[in-house]
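Run folding on both entries below.
>entry_1
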Amino acid sequence: MKTDGKPEAVGGDSNLASLPMSNSVNSSSSSSSSSSSINNDVVGSMDCLGCRLTGLAFGLGGGGYIMSSLLQDPPPRGAHKASVIATAGAMLCFGMYRALL
């Protein structure tokens, strides 16, 4: 039990820096080639067609649904109308962004 007021680590040593770290991508190669393969896995990954279509449907469907609130009786006015248009526009832009990029 410590008397300095700090909580004691459960299970022994709390110094995580002393633990050995392993590279799960390729432990037998040099560090420069393994770091480049890690970067290629993270940065160079492309979405599948199904993921792009799902994002497109979500963006266009959500934007259309939000835009349909402009057809209510009585229609929104002022800042409410502006926020509906801005939110629907953002959703539509998100859908197009997902499809194209």
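>entry_2
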Amino acid sequence: MALDETTEALFRAADTSILLALLPLLQSQIEQTSTEMRRTGGQRKDFADADAEITEMYSEALASLHVKLGDDPDANKALRDLRDKVNDSLGRLREGDGKFARQFEALLGYLADLKQRELWVLIELKRRGYLPWLPWEGRLYREDA
């Protein structure tokens, strides 16, 4: 994945001190974003676990109540109404799971962008001679190679 043309032109025009100053900032943002991704992933797992536990307990309770109520039509109607309300609530919980997935995807894209910028800065510092090339990197990244 390459930087977009505007960002690359901006970085190429930057003097070395700006590129050096960007590295700790990029690394800090990478760490913060990684932490947020772990937190979001953990919340999503907790959310899914709670959803599964609630669904299991609810199913057991409904089965038990249905057996106890027998053929009483009024009680069975009340039970169906209760079931519909709980199913509606569970449906809203599952919609929240999609929110976590979208948030995680956005964080992943942001992290990839940060990592690409960090890599670009490091390669540019090597091109300018401030950092040494690893033996196999020169052939991959040097413009004059």
